[in-house]
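Design review, sub-item: ligand-bound model
Attendees: FS, YL, KQ
YL presented the inputs for the zinc ion complex:
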Amino acid sequence: MKFSRIPTLVFVSSFLILFPVIHGWGEDGHLTVCRIAQSRLNDAANSAVKNLLPKYAENDLGSMCSWADRVKFRYHWSSPLHYIDTPDNLCSYQYNRDCKDETGEADRCVAGAVNNYTSQLQSYPSSSEYNLTEALLFLSHFIGDIHQPLHVGFTSDRGGNTIDVHWYTRKQVLHHVWDANIIETSEERFHDSNVDEFIDAIQQNITGIWAEQVPGWETCSRNETTCPDVYASESTKAACAWAYKGVSEGSTLEDDYFLSRLPVVNLRLAQGGVRLAATLNRIFG
Ligand SMILES: [Zn+2]
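KQ shared the predicted structure:
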């Protein structure tokens, strides 16, 4: 979703780069997906990820999971790869119909990107054709994005980016509520404003109340390495059932909305992390 806010100064590697903040899941959402994933890697995937991460990441995949948002300006071609626009109010997704960019070029959407970077990584350990470090960082980010319901939202409102709401007393767009506000409010209210505690709570659900569902999340049909069409279909259904539901231009969203949608956000972050790990384990294992 392309929109910009006040430019922010951020250190990336040793360079000081000026860029406007853009949204996928926010930092903490992507960090959550990648932390969960890295904790579930098999030995082969663990060592491949370690080899491919830049040294300054110190083997922390989470620290690099918003990289794809930061390079949208340098890699302008990558902007449409963060989302899918589906037909308004249909609440369904079909690869052949929906996976294209605004010019109509096929495969240029987040599902196409997940397939593309998965197959690039299958050439590990050596590829003369591809930058496998970038492939890992793109894949880790895009498996997160495809689980954010409004990244598979409606075309005319650009996944909720043109729907103005109030998040409690603050002006916001609906897309950003799902990228960041629900997560931030949860951290503030339930986890001492601490992202590590927020992630721990999701990890406990993965090994607790969701344990029986996890093998189903991990599995793709027909021996596929990854299955982004499944992830995208779930997202667009959740967008209709939860994100857009009851919201119109100018709505004020507060406790009713927050408390009923937070379980959906937690579930999507958990599924994103589990599936990123399962995908990397199949690629490298
Ligand atoms: Zn993104």
